[in-house]
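Report of the visiting student (M.T.), summer placement. My assignment was to run the structure pipeline on a short list of targets and document each run. The first record concerns DUF1850 domain-containing protein.
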Amino acid sequence: MHRRGWSAAVVVWVLLAGAGCAAAAGGGSQLEVVDRHGVRLASLPLAPDGRWCLRWAHSVTGGAVADCFRVDGGGMVLEASFLHDFAAGLGNTPGRGRLRSAEGGGYWIEGIDRALPRATLPLRVGRPDVGHHITSGAHRLDLGPLAAGQGVRIRPAMARAPTD
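After the run finished, the structure tokens were exported:
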């Protein structure tokens, strides 16, 4: 390889390695929702601390439920869950986090710290009245209009440059 070609290859490698290190160190700057074919349906900016919650209404009681995550080092970790009560299918699994009463009612299970395989949350989006939505900082993304009744995957994604 000529010296000039070798230099260009090194520059490309350094740029790509740097981008990969930035992604691993800070996680994604966005979450993306993709369909079963991997087609991006939507994205949402992540709060600076990488935290976000999936929120919905319990299908039987209509009470609030949430699973809260952290994008960290390129992975995704379930940190806590909120339960409005111990309705059908809800509760605390012994040894999985700490249960505490929430101000205003309900319960938080904190300290779950469970890494998700491949930094991906698979989800079957519920009916519109279930109200599946993602929040991160001041941002909100309603999933029902995008994919009610369909399977999606929620995962970190690096911010994409705007296209003209």
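Helices lie at 3-26, 144-147. Confidence is low (pLDDT under 50) at residues 1-28. I thank the supervising group for their guidance throughout the placement.
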